[in-house]
Design brief:
Layout: E1 4-6, H1 10-19, E2 33-40, E3 45-52, E4 55-57, H2 58-67, H3 81-93, E5 100-104, H4 109-114, E6 129-133, H5 139-153, E7 157-160, E8 165-168, E9 173-176
Parallel strand pairs: 2-5, 7-9
Antiparallel strand pairs: 1-4, 2-3, 3-4, 5-6, 6-8, 7-8
Helix pairs in contact: 1-3
């Protein structure tokens, strides 16, 4: 028997509705699977259906949490399902058929402190952020799509760093910082 975590709430529903193609009946939503295909900097890859409707698959979430771990410390932290939903939506909107690359997911405080441009209170330390790349796509387009979701939903922090896009599930914010 598959273990599932029941989740109800406006944000989860809003995220799911944002991904529906125009004209799709809302009645289709409960049976809809949410997929995520991701790869981390260690080359580890997970392609998994982690949610059907509002039911989250515990085993799939655990696999994703491991992939999003702090690679320097080899420690996994929290990975909120809402962050996974946002990344899945971005991947789906582009019809992206390759793994989304996670440059940085969860960070320990020590790893965060060692990074020259990391915010001292970074949402990465709470597992609420991911720095992503979609190989073969212009990062400006990835950032713009994430900003559209932010506008629609009324939350999400989106940062464009030139070579990657930061996505978080914190308060609505946007910024650009070009790193050399």
């Amino acid at each position: 028997m598959t273990q599932a975590l029941r989740r109800r709430g406006l944000l989860g529903a809003a995220a799911s509705l944002a991904a529906l193609p125009a004209g799709r009946a809302r009645a289709d939503l409960p049976d809809r699977q949410r997929w995520l295909w991701v790869q981390n900097n260690a080359g580890e890859e997970v392609a998994v259906a982690y949610r059907t409707g509002q039911d989250y698959n515990i085993q799939a979430l655990a696999r994703l949490q491991h992939l999003f771990r702090d690679l320097r410390e080899n420690l996994a932290g929290p990975t909120p399902p809402l962050l996974l939903d946002m990344l899945s939506l971005i991947q789906e909107r582009f019809g992206y058929t390759r793994p989304l690359r996670v440059i940085s997911g969860y960070r320990t405080p020590a790893t965060n402190a060692s990074l020259p441009f990391a915010a001292p209170n970074s949402l990465h330390m709470r597992g609420m952020a991911a720095d992503i790349v979609m190989p073969g796509m212009a990062q400006a387009d990835v950032c713009n799509q994430a900003m559209q979701f932010s506008q629609h939903l009324g939350f999400m922090g989106i940062g464009w760093y030139g070579s990657f896009t930061h996505v978080d599930i914190g308060p609505k914010a946007s910024w650009t910082r070009m790193l050399n």
